[in-house]
Amino acid sequence: MTTLASGTDTLTRDALTVLQPGFPGTTAPDWLLRRLGEGLASVGLFGRNIASPGQLSSLTAQLRSERDDVLVAIDEEGGDVTRLEARTGSSFPGNHALGAVDDVELTRAVAHELGRRLAECGVNLNWAPSADVNSNPSNPVIGVRSFGADPELVARHTAAYVTGLQSAGVAACTKHFPGHGDTAVDSHHALPRIDAELSVLEQRELLPFRAAIAAGSRAVMSAHILVPTLDPDHPATLSLRVLTDLLRGRLGYDGLIVTDAIEMQAIAATYGIERGSVIAIAAGADALCVGGGLADDETVRRLRDALVGAVRSGELPEERLAEAAQRVRELARWAASASKETPGPAPDVTRVDIGLVAARRALTVTGADDFTPLTEPPYAALLTPVANIAVGDETPWGVAAELERLLPGTETAGFAGDDAGSVILEAAGTRRVVAVVRDEHRHPWMAATLDTLLAARPDTVVVEMGVPQAPPRGALHIATHGAARVCGHAAAEVIAGV
Question: What angle is formed at CA 272 by the lines to CA 22 and CA 27, rounded to 5 degrees?
């Protein structure tokens, strides 16, 4: 049963309750267990915390031995953003692949199976799905994390994802409110700005969030973006107009509002994490995500003390902090109840590789009629852009591992820069080249590399694992709509004619 340290006063407990911190390692450190005893109610998990499903189950059991109603959150979108399978690549395609198929029942089934696996490991809050409409092709941080550029499509798949995930007993946290799709800046590094009229926001950004709310999303995550039409002075995470007036008032949302990671530079570099946390709670946020970058007891202490100090100075109303803490506890009660009511795993036959089924359906193949499948091992050249922080660079991607399974002897290497084309040609020798790209349209050096390869070797196969904005080219062009392991698997099957 949950036990709270007798010396922890109500104000301090409430301040701890609204934090969602991360930590290093695959077991819970002593400081984290102590904070759970003092009132901390949520913990955030990242790839660094997960080695295997069995280890994750042991970790969540360790957390619940200290506090049985703890919310265990994770950033598990499937596709490119995976923590559960950070070391291998995801068994599920991401949102863009699901949007390309445009079968809401498939999206619901994928989300349910992903949620079932999370619940089986003791995770009960997922910082997903992304409801962002990827209307800006130059967006460096959303891209394939979005279901697409059509607001209606994004809305129906967001609702299906929320329904599927929560039917498995895992709370959905729909993000990034009010919409991060029309940005060309990554909020991990700076403060993005969306200059759109209210009428555009209503028809584009807000539509998927309305759908998520109607579907019963238990949580919504705010974005660190400035939308002057809504609030010219504060980013959404810190805006009373956005969180309270718009999300709570006009959209009628009454669930948990979680901030995106408070240590991201859009907040940390402009307000500082302590000041930013106080303003966020005052603006209407109920929980503060922290720990992707800062993951230690000192950070927890700093934020706790900042909130307590703001209440005592009169800057933050005590009832606002108490209300936020109460919403966290309400979600914890829902999660505990849902875990008891959720049925056990379905028979294997009903969920056979649903992720791979979806990845196969998501492929767009150009040139297949004139293509002869490869029978000899090729040279897989990975044209590697700098990974954004949300995706990370620890998760493998591409098609080489799957081609090696089907065509033993396949060789591979990663390339970048203006001379990549000539270097690849020399490395490949007489082998058939399979060029694997990610968002060719955003990287001039990548497009130039393909120009060089195709001029010298027109039989080159091109696999686009990002958003397929550039015209298809190559002897065979495969758009996977994402770089998950199963997307590579599906593409390799086409290349090898399996």
Answer: 10
